[in-house]
Amino acid sequence: MNLHEYQAKELLKKYNVPVQEGIACSTPTEAEEAYRQIHTQYGSKFAVVKAQIHAGGRGKGKIRGTEQRGVAVGKNAEAVKEIAQNILGGTLVTIQTGEAGKVVSKVLVAQDVYYEGPNPVKEFYLSILLDRAKGQNVIMYSTEGGMDIEEVAHNTPDRIFKEWVHPGGPLQGFQARKIAFNLGLSGEAFKNCVKFVTNLYNAYVGLDCGMLEINPLFKTSDEKIIAVDCKMNIDDNALTRHAELAAMRDISEEDPTEVEAGKYNLNFVKLDGNVGCMVNGAGLAMATMDMIKLSGGEPANFLDVGGTANAQTVEAGFRIILKDPKVKAILINIFGGIVRCDRVAQGVIDAYQSMGNIDVPIIVRLQGTNAEEAKKLIDESGLKVQSAILLSEAAELVNKAVTAA
C-alpha cells in the first residue's frame, strides 16, 4: 500500500525523524491559509506547493494542458493560492504516471528549507528496502540526491553506497556512522545524520514498510538533517497489525479493477496484453502467462482466484477481465487440489449464464481432482466454452483464438 508524502511524513515524525513541515490542503483557500500558518510558525518567506499523487517525477511533471509543474514555489499567500488552484483537480503527467497521468485532489504546502545560514546546503539520497537475494534489509544512499537519482545509478553506479542490516536485529551504531561518513558529513551534521538514519530505520521496521525512500535527504544551512520528500510503501500482508495505516489507503490512486478484485479476495494485476487469465495459484499463473506468450498472445492480466473458487468469484473474475477492451480471449487454467475442478466448471457455467452472451472465446483447462467430470460439465453445457485437459491443447486453442481475432 502506497502512502502520500504528507501521510508518510506524519508517520516519520512519530519516530522522531525530522521532516520538512507542511500542511495538506484540498482547496486553494486552504493552501492560502496554510502559507500564512507556515510563515508565522517557521518564518518561511517562501512555501513549496507539492501535488500529492502516488508517483514520482512531480517536480518535472506538468498539469495536462498547462505549463504548471507538480511542485512549485510560492513567494506569498496569493502566489501559493494561485499555484494550488492550477494544480488541484488537474491531471498531473509525470515520467512515472505515463500519458494517463493522475488527478490531483490534494497539495502539500511545505516550509522553505533553503534558508540562508553559516554553511552550504546539500542534497543526498537515501532509501531502505529488502534485498531478496541476501535476505537482508539494505540501506542505499548517495551524495548525489535530487530528482535524477536514476541517472546517477545508471551513469555513475560507484556513487551509490549500500549498507546491509540483518532483519533480526537493529541498525548498529557503527553502520549509521559509516553512512554519515560516506556522505561527507562532519561535526553537528554528522551527529544529526546518525540520529536521522537510526530513527528512519526504526520507522522502516516498526511500520512494516516494503520501501522507504527519502529524496532529497537534506542538510540545511544550520546543519540539520531532514526529509524533504518521502515515498513510503507498506507491506499489505502486515496491515492486520496496523489498522491505523489501513485507514490511510487512498483507493482513488489505485487501478479501479484491482480495487474491485480485492473486494472478492481476488489477486489481480492488470497488464497490457490481449488474453485474459484466470488461474488458481501464483506459480500456475506465472506458468500460464509464459504459455500464453509462447502461443503467440500476450497476457492481459494476472488473476489468481485462490483455493476457494466458486460461481461468485468466477463471475467476478469474468466481469473484471472483460472490462479490458483489449481482451480477445480468456484462458481459465485450474489445477484441482484444494478446489475441485467440477466445482470450478459449474462456476464457469453459472457465471456464463448469469452474464449472458460473452463475445470473446473462453478456453477452460482443468486438471486434477474431478477433471474428467469437469470436462463433461463444460462439454454438455451447450455454452461457447472450449475445454482442454492438456496444457498443449489449451495453448493451441489460445493460439487459434488470438489469430482469429
Q: What features would you describe in this structure?
A:
This protein has 405 residues and is of the alpha+beta class. It is built from 13 helices and 20 strands. The protein has helices spanning 5-13, 28-42, 77-87, 149-155, 173-182, 187-206, 243-246, 256-263, 282-294, 311-322, 341-355, 371-379, 391-404; strands spanning 2-3, 22-25, 47-51, 62-63, 71-74, 91-93, 102-103, 107-111, 122-131, 136-142, 160-165, 209-219, 225-227, 231-234, 267-270, 275-279, 301-304, 329-336, 362-368, 385-388. Strands 1, 9, 10, 11, 12, 13 and 14 form a 7-stranded antiparallel beta sheet that branches. The radius of gyration is 26 Å and the shape is elongated. The two termini are 37 Å apart. 43% of the residues are buried. The mean pLDDT is 89.
Which spans have pLDDT < 50 for at least 5 consecutive residues?
none
Question: Considering DSSP H and I runs of 4 or more, what fraction of the residues is helical?
Answer: 25-40%
Q: Between the first and last Cα atoms, what is the distance in angstroms?
A: 37 Å
Mean pLDDT: 89
How does the overall form come out from the CA principal axes? Answer: elongated
**Biggest β-sheet strands, sense, barrel:** 7 strands, antiparallel
Q: Given the structure, what is the number of helices? A: 13
Share of residues in strands: 15-25%
CA-based gyration radius: 26 Å
- Given helix and strand content, the structural type is alpha+beta
Question: How many strands in all?
Answer: 20
Topology of this protein?
Layout: E1 2-3, H1 5-13, E2 22-25, H2 28-42, E3 47-51, E4 62-63, E5 71-74, H3 77-87, E6 91-93, E7 102-103, E8 107-111, E9 122-131, E10 136-142, H4 149-155, E11 160-165, H5 173-182, H6 187-206, E12 209-219, E13 225-227, E14 231-234, H7 243-246, H8 256-263, E15 267-270, E16 275-279, H9 282-294, E17 301-304, H10 311-322, E18 329-336, H11 341-355, E19 362-368, H12 371-379, E20 385-388, H13 391-404
Parallel strand pairs: 16-18, 18-19, 19-20
Antiparallel strand pairs: 1-14, 2-8, 3-5, 3-8, 4-6, 6-7, 9-10, 9-12, 10-11, 12-13, 12-14, 15-17
Binding site for ATP: 50, 57-59, 113, 123
Binding site for Mg(2+): 215, 229
Subunit structure: Heterotetramer of two alpha and two beta subunits.
